[in-house]
Structure prediction request, 322 residues.
Amino acid sequence: MSHGRDDEIHEEHEEHVNHEAWVIPYADLLTLLMAMFIALFAMSTVDVTKFKAFAIGFNEALGGGKLDAGIGGSGKATSPVVGQGNGDGPFTGGQLAPKDASVNGDQIQQILSATASNQAQAATQRQTLADVDKRITEAAKSLGFGGKVQTKELNNGLQVTLLTDRVLFESGQADLRPQGLELLNVIGQVLKSVDNRIDINGYTDDVPIRAGGPFRSNLYLSSFRADAVADYFASIGLSRSRLFPAGRGDQDFVASNTTADGRAQNRRVEIFVQSKLVKQALDQAGLNDKPVTPTTKPISPITPIDSSGGAQPNLKPHLGGN
Prediction:
């Protein structure tokens, strides 16, 4: 019987498997995600100094070259782009942008300053129009017209609605009543304290105009009423250049014309004090009322001739129906 150990069978132990190896790449992934979100958060503040430091550090961390003057000056990014170091393709010289391209922090600062300035102006305008609203409301209540004057603050200005029924005008008329003059006087005095544009729009109900009367239609009646309010405001010192009257007729109704109460609400004059930011925005967008150079020769207007051979008069220029 052999006592050698050569024929002994060695038992092989099974290698232990590490089931937690996934933790390491998962932790690395979380670290990268955290770094990315921190970077996004820092960039969202649009702080020029922090943005400059982040751009330089991020560029160097990726193995890029030195940023000559960084962000905020006239310097240019000279870091190479992976795969584009040979100067071929759209990235000339292995750069992200042409050699004369730069990111100017002054432009970013100008945008931030303009935004802050617009926000400050908007807040000032809101406060100014809120004061006008309060003063008009208090004046109307003191005269006993609280239920006849309605105000509404909008994003683009202040709307003051005057119900004309037996306050400003008699039915079918465009002559201001004495108590209407009293109400317009206190409103006009308040409006003299600001220099905003003022739109004056006249409205009627849909009851047809009596044939043979002084007005052809509700559109003409509403136009004459808007003109009467504008004329009175001008007579107490408001600049004509700020006043823009227009007749809207019976189209823009705010209540049903099937009831007496609804028709009374539709017979109104709306005084709209426009926010200064509206004109500023239109000017910046090139949508102001300045004339443009015509591209074609205008057609000469043809003056209508009546039966007597004379030109027909232009009765009212402020018709603005829909």
Residues 68-103 have pLDDT under 50 and may be disordered. The helical segments are 23-44, 48-61, 105-142, 178-191, 218-235, 260-266, 276-284. The domain at 128-284 is CATH 3.30.1330.60 (60s Ribosomal Protein L30; Chain: A;). Strands lie at 149-154, 157-163, 198-203, 243-247, 268-274.
